[in-house]
Amino acid sequence: MSTTGQVIKCKAAVAWEPGKPLSIEDVEVAPPKVHEVRIKVVATGVCHTDWVNLYETGKGMKFRPFPLVLGHEAAGVVESVGPEVTNFSPGDKVIPLFLPQCFDCDRCRSPKTNLCKKNWENAQVGILADGTSRISCNGQQVYQFLGVSSFSQYTVLSDASLAKIRDDAPLDKVYLLGCGVSTGYGAVVNTGKVEKDSLCAVFGLGAVGLAAIMGCQIAGAKRIIGIDINPDKFEKAREFGATECVNPKEHSRNIQEVLVEMTNGGVDYAFECVGSPAVMTAALESTIDAWGMCVIVGWTETEAMNVVVEKILMGRTLTGTYFGGWKSVQEVPKLVDDYMKKKLKLDEFITHKLPLDQINKAFDLLKLGQSIRALINLWPEENNPKVA
Predict the structure, then answer these.
(1) pTM score, two decimals?
(2) Together in a domain, 174 and 215
(3) Residue 199 is part of which domain span?
(4) In what order do the strands lie in the sheet with 317-320?
């Protein structure tokens, strides 16, 4: 029986309140409205941003309304499209995008930025363009994280927040291009524009940091130094291209002093992939004066970074990146192509595979530093959706 135009009943991991584990619930997902697409989510990952918005909300992070379905790094298949949707059809393979690309605004028309603001304010507070969510549970509206909510077997997004990808792409791999890998890799090749034979330092060896290391290797960097307080991540970092790894806990001096000494003056490029103001400062101060560049990749909404103005005045560049600088709708399919051509690693990021009902274990593994990315399979036993 066709589900087009019908409310679909399915499973989702719902955050009922901040700081509490997710609860697997039966939810109802309404049909898409104008310029919206409903997708079946096949694979999703648990990102650090999901964790902080569950466990750090109200502790320096922006407050987002609850109940909430988290998740923003995913891949799926179009189930149905709403009125005025012309770029998608049922059966298309897609990657949801927390950063849209409308092609119409000044920012989309500019080559200088990827920061489209289509439906931006609404997405930050968990609603779609009309001011409501398409997900409900027991008659109560459930908010959609960043306008995505991939911890649900079905979800509805704006048609400006989806990238259509090739039919032969494995969804249980390319979902990683919805956030972490694209962000870290793009920070190097788009924002930093790392040059051959450069000296690079990557702070934080999670998925974003490993993707940055991969980008540095592809760019031809001569030395790639991975920095993390968890030495268990060093072997994986070397697999992605790190030439050496440093644990700040093994040194009595600040890590930036150690790096400056190791590189005879500082690195050419530093990438902060943690989201910590203290680490941001260390990354900036690890760069060489005259031409050093520090790219802030890690997300934080907490206290401002304490930048020493002198460090900037002496010729360094401090900049940030969001989603790696990629024009999302347009360029994510190209990243999928690069993976299919074996130009990008994705499989190596996936350290665990779990069904949706074990999603809280994925959060625990991430917090304990025991996983890079856990693949959440939303359909461990294929079931047909129920029409409400």
Answers:
(1) 0.94
(2) no
(3) 184-322
(4) 244-246, 223-227, 199-203, 269-272, 293-296, 317-320
